[in-house]
Amino acid sequence: MPPSITAAYLARYRSVAAADGPPNLLPLTGAQRRFLISRQLDPQHRPDVVPLFFAFPRGTVDLPRLHRAAVRLAGGHPALRGRFGTVRGTPVLQLGDPSVEVALAPVGPADTARGALLRALLDWPADGPALRLLLAADPDGDEELLALALDHAACDEQSLGIVTAELTEAYAQDERSAGDPAADGSAGYREAVELQLAAEAAAANAAAQAHWAARLGGLGGPGGTAATGRRGRGAPPQPTGMLSERLPAATGAARGAVFPALLDAVSAAAHRLLGTDRTLALGYPWGGRPPGAPPVLGCFLNTLVHPAAAGPPRSLDELGDAWWDDLDHADTPFDELVRAARSAGAQWSGEPDGLLTFEDLQRRPPLVLDGTEGRETHLAGRPLGAPLAVSASHGEDLLVRLAWDRDRCPDDAAEAAFALLLTTLSHHLRPAR
Questions:
Q1: Which tens digit of pLDDT belongs to each residue from 336-365?
Q2: Strands ordered across the beta sheet of 375-377
């Protein structure tokens, strides 16, 4: 078996760090390296962004105070104190000053706060900060909308909870002077990243390769009719579409069945939307900090791939068994999954046909500014990394959102796909309640 991709990266990083490299260089996890490569391939070199949007009563947010809180937050986290880049071709995080922006997004008389924030996030500077907090308000509205956005290389699901909790605390304390600076967190961050890289290297083994080769060997190349390009030459990309539905929260035994049920429901929706019977690559992030790692802010997730076969809904037992088998190999880096699939004869580029993200809102504290809790909302129109993406948030209810690329998929197909997704999800979850 050839050397793992992680082991090869570690050898390059150690060589760079030892040969007159700056002492403030830190290695990157596999996910962080993929995000950096994606940024370099983007024509505008824009990062992948994770945004949250919170509505507050107009006049709630004090921007100077929010800026002080954001700087204090970033000062304690290496992922927000520096730049992701390369040294001698090797991806690294180079530590520096807190990397934040807190600003007002201008809204014209005929504009909306949502439109202003979306434009500002799409115009993320190539060398921009890791954390941006942008505020906008409709000209005649009684609310203001705050976008809390992070470079995905600095953020995963667990990080979102850290950010909302610490930003709430820092805003409440309102540290107006240097006073008691936050610990810089470098030692804990380095420990967490090195533990993650050790786990990724150990997971790139022969047993994992055999598992993923068997699971992903049937993936094919692009196909179908609905996902073909629909934008005229020279025309700007259309804003992505979004549909959403709130379902009752799953309780009891059904709570543990939500994710495998989502896998099957999204698989059905993807086949309907893309108009194909081939086995699709459905990507989903999974994972957290390695055992024993400090709970630092950063990106420690891995992207796994579910082979979405066409056909009627499968049983939850069958879905759950296959999913748990995959989770036994959840540390295997995505690049190794692609290698395993191709070794088994898959004609797959490595690009996902669809994406599924799932967040347990019980693990994320709310954002509270001066005693006022922000009401989370969601904005359509952001770029996607696949023809479709489904996001599910499980809290007091189960919020399911389907976003699709309007340049590749027509709206009527997306509406039919979303209806099928909800029907399939209800088929799986209703009997278990």
A1: 999 999 999 998 999 999 999 999 888 899
A2: 100-104, 131-137, 143-151, 49-57, 375-377
